[in-house]
Design a protein that fits this description.
Chain lengths: ~425, ~230
C-alpha cells in the first residue's frame, strides 16, 4: 500500500486535497482532537509540575535528614499528628545523640512545641512555639539575621529567651528591632498565665515551602518549653519530645542511621518483635515516595479525564468520516472506475483520518503548551511540559485517527463501483 | 479485441433473481465504432459493465485481447480499467470541487506500471488531453463553472489520458442539448478515426446509433440484431 516515501507523500497529498474540499468541516472535526490533546498536555503538565515542585522542596531540606516521631506509623506511611503521642522521651533523644548508640548521626535535634498565643504590647499572634536545642539551627541550616540562636547554656538554665522567625518578628514588631524586647507567651492549661521571654535573635526569611516553614515559628529552649510554657511530661513523669530530627553523616549513611535508631528505640522501649513500634522513623526517601505517589495518582487522574475528551474527539472523527464516506459514494465510484484499487481507497480515507487527527494533535500540543505556560504565569500552580506527555499525545492522536478511521475507510473501500456510480 | 461467448449475468434482487444477460455472444474488433442499442431492461448497462471490467460474468467467457477476465481479482480488474478502458458517463461523473486539470490527472494517480508517474508528467499529459478536447483554456475551472458539454469533454479527456484501447460511452449525450451532443459525437468520431480507439457506445437514440459503424441491438439479455 505504502511502499516508499514518494507513495507516502502522494497519499498525504491526496488526503489533504480531500480535506481541503471541505475546510470548515475538517477544521471543526480537528477541533475535537485539538481540545483533547491540549487538555492532555496541559493537565499532565500541571501534574508533573506539582510532582517536580514537591520533590524539589523535599530535596532542598536534604536527603540525609531523618525524623523520629512518637506513635506508630500507620498504614501507608501516614502518621498521626506529631506530638499527640508521648512515647518519645527526652532521654530517648539523648540516647540517639550518644555516638556509641548511633555512630553515623552527626546532628541530633529534639524539639517540643505547640501552637499558642504570642504577645508583644497589644499585638498578638498565634505562633508555633517550638522548644529546641542549639543543634536545631545546624540540622535545618537556619541563618540568623540578627542576634543569636538558642545556645546550649540557654537550654541548661531553662532561660526565658526566644528567637523569632522572620514573619513572626514582622507581625509582632513591624519595622523595628526586636532584640532585647520582652514578649509573652500564653501558658497552656487552664490557669492561663503568661511567660515573659526576651528576644535574643531573628532568623532570615526562609520563603514558602510545602514543609513546615520556620518563618512563623517562635523558638525557645526546649527545657523552657517542656517545663515553663507547656507541660512536657508523660504519665511516668518523663520529659517528652514531639520530634527528633537526625542528620546522618552522609547521604549514604541515612539508611544505617535509620536502622541504628530503630534498634536503639526498640530495646529502650522494651518492645517484643511481634509488637507494633510506638515510634516511627521517616527519611526523605519515604516522604518523596509518599509525595510522588500522591501526585502520581493525581497526574494519572488528570490525564485520564483529558484522555476521555480525546476519545470523544476520536469518535467525532469517526462520525464525520462516516458521513463523508456516504456523501462521497459517487466519488468513490468514479475513483474505482478509473482504476483505484480497494487498497487505494482504504489508504485515502485512512490517511484523511490520520492527517486530521495528527494535525489536530500538533495544534493541540501548541495550545496545551500555551495553556501550561499560562497556568505557570498565574503562579497558582507549577507546570512542566515533558517530552513524555508530548509523545504520548502525538502517539495517542495518531492511534485515534487510525482506530476511528479504519471502519469508515473500510466501508469506502468495500463499495461496489457500479452501485457507487449510481448513488444519487 | 473484445470477445464475449455465451455470457450470463444473474443478479439477486432480494428474493428475485434477475437474468440481465442470458447467454450472450458478441465480438468487437480493435478499432471498431459500435453502438449498443435496446430498450431499458434489455441488458445494455450490464453488458457495458462487463465489457468495462466493472463487473464479471456469472457464467460464460469474456476475453479482452485474448485474456480471460472472469478469473481476475479486483486489483487486476482495476488495473485493466486504469490502463485499457476509458469511461464516459451520461452524468459526466466528475469529482465535485476539483479543477478540470485535477480531474484528468486522477487516473494516473492509480497507474502503477512498476513506478508511479511523476506529478509533472501527469500534469503534462493531462494538459495535452484537455487541449485535445478543446479545453486548453478551462484547466482551472471547477465542474460548476463549466457547461454540460464542457463537463463531458473533461470526462472524455480523463478517459483518454492513459491512452486506452477502448472508450466505453454510456449515453454520452443524454444530458446535453443537441449542439453540445453533436460536439461530443464529433470528438468520439475523431478519436475513432485518428487514433484507432475502439468506441463502444450505449444509447437508445437512433440518430446517434446510425453514426456508428455497427449497431448491436439487444432484447431481454440477448443480441437480436446486428447491423453493419
Amino acid at each position: 500500500m505504502i511502499a516508499t516515501i514518494a507513495d507516502l507523500l502522494e497519499n498525504v497529498r491526496v488526503a489533504l486535497d480531500g480535506l481541503l474540499v471541505n475546510k470548515m468541516r475538517s477544521a471543526l472535526t480537528m477541533l475535537g482532537i485539538i481540545i483533547g490533546v491540549a487538555a492532555v498536555i496541559a493537565l499532565l503538565s500541571v501534574g508533573e509540575g506539582a510532582q517536580a515542585s514537591i520533590t524539589d522542596q523535599i530535596n532542598s531540606v536534604g536527603t540525609n535528614l531523618l525524623f523520629v516521631s512518637p506513635g506508630a506509623a500507620s498504614m501507608g506511611g501516614v502518621r498521626g499528628a506529631s506530638g499527640s503521642a508521648t512515647t518519645l522521651t527526652y532521654a530517648d533523644a539523648e540516647a540517639i545523640a550518644d555516638p556509641r548508640n548511633v555512630p553515623d548521626a552527626s546532628v541530633v535535634a529534639p524539639q517540643y512545641g505547640q501552637s499558642t498565643q504570642v504577645i508583644f504590647g497589644d499585638t498578638n499572634i498565634n505562633g508555633s512555639v517550638t522548644g529546641v536545642t542549639a543543634e536545631y539551627q545546624e540540622a535545618f541550616e537556619l541563618e540568623v539575621a540578627s542576634g543569636s540562636f538558642i545556645a546550649e547554656k540557654d537550654v541548661d538554665k531553662r532561660a526565658n529567651v526566644a528567637v523569632l522567625g522572620y514573619q513572626a518578628a514582622q507581625d509582632l514588631f513591624g519595622g523595628f528591632d526586636p532584640i532585647g524586647q520582652k514578649i509573652k507567651v500564653a501558658l497552656s492549661g487552664e490557669n492561663g498565665g503568661r511567660v515573659p521571654l526576651t528576644v535574643i535573635g531573628v532568623l532570615e526569611e526562609e520563603g514558602d515551602s510545602m514543609m513546615s516553614s520556620t518563618d512563623d515559628a517562635v523558638f525557645v529552649p526546649i527545657s523552657t518549653a517542656q517545663t515553663k510554657i507547656f507541660s512536657g511530661r508523660n504519665a511516668q513523669g518523663e520529659l517528652v519530645v514531639s520530634q527528633v530530627s537526625v542528620v546522618a553523616v552522609s547521604d549514604d549513611q541515612t539508611a544505617a542511621v535509620e536502622d541504628q535508631i530503630n534498634a536503639l528505640l526498640w530495646s529502650r522501649h522494651d518492645l517484643n518483635p511481634d509488637e507494633e513500634a510506638d515510634f516511627s522513623v521517616m527519611n526523605q526517601a519515604d516522604m518523596l515516595e509518599m509525595a510522588s505517589e500522591i501526585t502520581g495518582i493525581m497526574t494519572v487522574f488528570l490525564g485520564a479525564i483529558a484522555g476521555i475528551s480525546l476519545l470523544v474527539g476520536g469518535i467525532g472523527i469517526m462520525n464525520i468520516m462516516l458521513v463523508s464516506v456516504t456523501e462521497r459514494t459517487r466519488e468513490i465510484g468514479i475513483r474505482k472506475a478509473v482504476g483505484a484499487r480497494k487498497a487505494d481507497i482504504l489508504t485515502q480515507f485512512l490517511m484523511e483520518a490520520v492527517v486530521l487527527s495528527l494535525l489536530g494533535g500538533l495544534l493541540g500540543i501548541l495550545l496545551g503548551v500555551g495553556l501550561a505556560q499560562l497556568v505557570s504565569l498565574t503562579g497558582l500552580l507549577e507546570s512542566l511540559v515533558t517530552l513524555d506527555s508530548v509523545l504520548l499525545a502525538v502517539g495517542f492522536s495518531f492511534a485515534i485517527g487510525l482506530f476511528f478511521g479504519i471502519y469508515p475507510a473500510n466501508q469506502a473501500a468495500g463499495m461496489n463501483p457500479i452501485e457507487a456510480l449510481r448513488y444519487e | 479485441m473484445i470477445a464475449i461467448e455465451n455470457v450470463t449475468k444473474v443478479y439477486q434482487m432480494g428474493e428475485v433473481e434477475v437474468h440481465a444477460l442470458r447467454g450472450m455472444s458478441l465480438k468487437i474488433e480493435q478499432g471498431e465504432w459500435v453502438a449498443i442499442m435496446g430498450p431499458s431492461g434489455s441488458g445494455k448497462s450490464t453488458l457495458m459493465h462487463i465489457i468495462g471490467c466493472l463487473d464479471i460474468p456469472t457464467s460464460g467467457v469474456y476475453r479482452l485481447d485474448g485474456v480471460e477476465v472472469g478469473g481476475m481479482d479486483e486489483n487486476q480488474l482495476a488495473a485493466i480499467r486504469n490502463q485499457q478502458i476509458g469511461f464516459v458517463f451520461q452524468t459526466f461523473n466528475l469529482l465535485a470541487r476539483t479543477s478540470a486539470l485535477k480531474q484528468v490527472m486522477l487516473p494516473m494517480q492509480y497507474t502503477r506500471d512498476g513506478q508511479r508517474i511523476p506529478l509533472a508528467e501527469r500534469e503534462r499529459r493531462a494538459r495535452e488531453s484537455l487541449e485535445m478536447v478543446g479545453l486548453g483554456d478551462r484547466m482551472d475551472h471547477h465542474p460548476t463553472e463549466l457547461s454540460g458539454g464542457q463537463q463531458q469533454r473533461v470526462a472524455i479527456a480523463r478517459a483518454l489520458v492513459n491512452s486506452p484501447a477502448i472508450i466505453m460511452a454510456d449515453e454520452p449525450t443524454g444530458n446535453l442539448d443537441s449542439r453540445s451532443g453533436a460536439e461530443i459525437m464529433e470528438i468520439l468520431q475523431r478519436l475513432h478515426e485518428e487514433r484507432g480507439i475502439t468506441v463502444v457506445m450505449v444509447t437508445h437514440d437512433e440518430e446517434l446509433g446510425v453514426q456508428a459503424e455497427r449497431i448491436v441491438r439487444l432484447r431481454d439479455g440477448l443480441v437480436v440484431d446486428e447491423v453493419r
